[in-house]
Amino acid sequence: MPAIRSLAKTIGKDHTLALALWRTEIHDARLLCAFVDDATAVRPDQMDTWAGDFNSWDLTDQVCNNLFSRTPYAAEKIMAWSAREEEFVRRAAFALIASLAVHSRTLGDEQFVDWMSLITAAADDERNFVKKAVNWALRQIGKRSLALRESALTVAEELTQRESTSARWIGRDALRELHRPDIIERLQKKSTQ
Predict the structure, then answer these.
(1) Please, which pLDDT band fits residue 159 given cuts at 50, 70 and 90?
(2) Does residue 25 lie in a domain region?
């Protein structure tokens, strides 16, 4: 990744190049697309096409974190992709939630509360790459604000009571992280600023 990031800085933003690189189907070339494509030029149909091509967790996460989360279509794709059956398309929905929870300065807490229903709906998915992304999204939402931490803790507690092994793991792991003193301290400081 350091070499890909360095190359991307040299290249700069180039939507046409990104589209051509994606068509090569070469994994590292596709990773580079996450950094060189221009988020203002990305359209919903491109997002759907690329998501359909996702075949690894790292490609999914890099494209979602570094490109798709910067488009005005991210929330729309979260809703659509969270209901899809393809493992990496579904993962993409929750990778976007996690990314927006960390980086968005414009979305309010209410949007993340709404997305909790997607987390509870997908928590029973036993596929490793989906369950880990669902967990990631829940934890990142819970670290966004004190109010969202409380909402995330409520969801995590509920998940620990489910029959699904996946849901119980997601809930327990989120509870463990969201009860860490350093996270609570950071959120308390953030709330007084």
Answers:
(1) very high
(2) no
